[in-house]
Amino acid sequence: MQKTAVSWVIYSLTHSKFMLGLTLFASLFPSFLFSFLGGVTADRYNRYRLLLATQAASMIQALLLTALIFWGHYVVWEIIALSAVLGFINAFDVPARQSLVYEMVDNKADLPNALALNSSMVNLSRLIGPGIAGLVLEKFGDTVCFGANAISFIAVIGSLLMMRLPKMESKKHDKNIFSELKEGFVYISNTPSIKSILIMLATISLLVLPFSTLIPVYAKDIFKGTASTFGVLDSVIGLGAFSGAIFLASLKPGHNLKKILAINTLIFGAGLVIFSHMPNYPLALLFAAVTGFGMMSQITISNTLIQTTVTPDMRGRVISFYAMAFFGMQPLGGLLVGSVSQWIGTADTVMLEGVVALIIGILHFRFLRKTQLQKDTVHTLDEQPMNTLS
After folding, report:
1. CATH number at residue 116
2. Element (H, E) at 105
3. Domain carrying residue 196
4. 383 in any annotated domain
5. What CA–CA distances, in Å, run from 334 to 102, 103, 132, 317, 386?
6. pLDDT tens sequence across 150-176
7. What's the pTM?
8. Could you give the number of structural domains in the chain?
9. Which of 141, 155, 156 has its CA nearest to residue 89?
10. Quick one: CA dihedral 299, 300, 304, 305, positive or negative?
11. pLDDT tens, 59-98?
């Protein structure tokens, strides 16, 4: 609800697509800058206590934003500054929270399903939140929308306090933070399976995922709607993403997640291309949902493949790189997309983003085929001595 309200308030005040991109940049770029530090912190200290601290800090940020809107004497830059504060908090929150999911699952064979269910929970909130935000903005105003988010942290922190996790054993750290950060980078460089996933996610986050910054333009200018229209559009994308997460959660162990990632990247791209120039509002909603379905794989499957591959003592640091690729590239992409849309128009910009997703999906298929051919070649060479002996 807060994300939707911030976007709507910013666009209503400025009518600037660039300012929408700048808002996304402010909310996510601090996560890019400090996620490395957040990852090292999550590996060095108690992740549960770190998560409690970040949620308490997020509540304070929400209260400050509510107070700012309530008093009414604010400018755009104050809202953007508070968005940047939340981005800094998330740099520590994401590595701790994602790492904690692994610790919560006793049977690690259930981890892919657990991560997908975790994503479905996030996307269910994304599905419900914008729709409620649109109605609240229209009926009750900005203050109620921001205030509801601030109050919601009581339930969040209360739920965390009720959790009972295995006691974390304190470890002695002989190296400084920067040495541990370098270790994480070297580990990723020497693990091709993780490195390729992070590169793909970073590219998608930079060039494709920032399409979301232009959704207010579709709601207000293209479909001539209100805040409710924006809420519905955002919610339909969330519905598609939620469906994608449920689909991934229902998969039984043994499925080729890398192939599913490639297929869903193509679905993501195709959905964006068709949505971009769809003048019919109901059909646009349909393809917005298709877009959300394909988009979900970028986040969930990438996270799953990393979590099931990385060694436990590197988990926080590797997830910080995941957060950097996901959160860090989006603000840069938001600025890029905002600028390009001013030049070539909103619809053509979104279509171009869809084309990029299609190209990435095709390249990923080629990468998978090349990898499989290399494995088959090695397997054949390994069998040759046996055949010669026989």
Report:
1. 1.20.1250.20
2. none
3. 2-163+176-375
4. no
5. 31, 34, 25, 25, 57
6. 999 999 999 999 988 777 665 565 666
7. 0.70
8. 1
9. 156
10. negative
11. 999 999 999 888 877 788 888 999 999 989 988 998 888 7
